Amino acid sequence: MIPIPAFSDNYLWLMVQGHQAVAVDPGDAAPVLAYLQQHNLTLSAILVTHHHSDHIGGVNVLLGQFNCPVYAPHNPVFDFPYQTVVEADEITLFGTTFKVLNVPGHTAIHVAYYGGNSLFCGDTLFGCGCGRIFDGSAEQLYVSLQKIAQLPDDTLVYCAHEYTLNNIRFALSVDPDNTALQARQQTDQKLRDQGLPTLPSTLKLEKATNPFLRCDTAALQEIANSSDKLTVFRMTRELKNNF
Prior knowledge:
Elements: E1 2-6, E2 10-17, E3 20-24, H1 29-38, E4 42-47, H2 53-56, H3 59-65, E5 70-72, E6 83-84, E7 90-93, E8 96-102, E9 111-115, E10 118-120, E11 125-126, E12 129-130, H4 138-149, E13 156-158, H5 164-174, H6 179-193, E14 201-202, H7 203-209, H8 218-224, H9 229-241
Parallel strand pairs: 3-4, 4-5, 5-6, 10-13
Antiparallel strand pairs: 1-2, 2-3, 7-8, 8-9, 9-10, 11-12, 13-14
């Protein structure tokens, strides 16, 4: 998987096999086209997770250059041709079958793609964090994250933003005695110091360090003064909003 940096902190992920490529959430066509041209690649498909402009802004330009299918959840705001995908649909790309997961919360309409031990989760799950809630709900996002948490621990998590270090700083403020989190801060800081992405992470690492997947832990429940995991999640998301 190739991370193509865009805007201030996006990664536009590119799957490559031979001279073919698949773009995930191409919010900006220019860096994708530049990479394709530099490496003599043809775009064979586009995957879309949700409607925010930094995820779809480059789709029409790319379709003007390549005749390829676009897979996306049904959303009336999309102004490009696409094949609608829903929960449990399967898409085969480069011989790998990707299953569609319905993961609303960040937005009311949001999907992820899981296959080949890889998860393209858009803005639902981040490195040590999760997406802000726009037109979805906290309950939706909590359920979506729990669904993702059921995937195998060695799943590679391809998030759409480089938010990890800031998310770790927040996580340490609510889970300061977490030794796995402390170690992750050192490891990921070294990666960023070298200009390298902190992604993909693994689901095992997220479950050990990401507070939004740890609502059953004593540290977070004490802060929330509740053992109800949805209540803990709501509290943690609100604290992160104001961090």
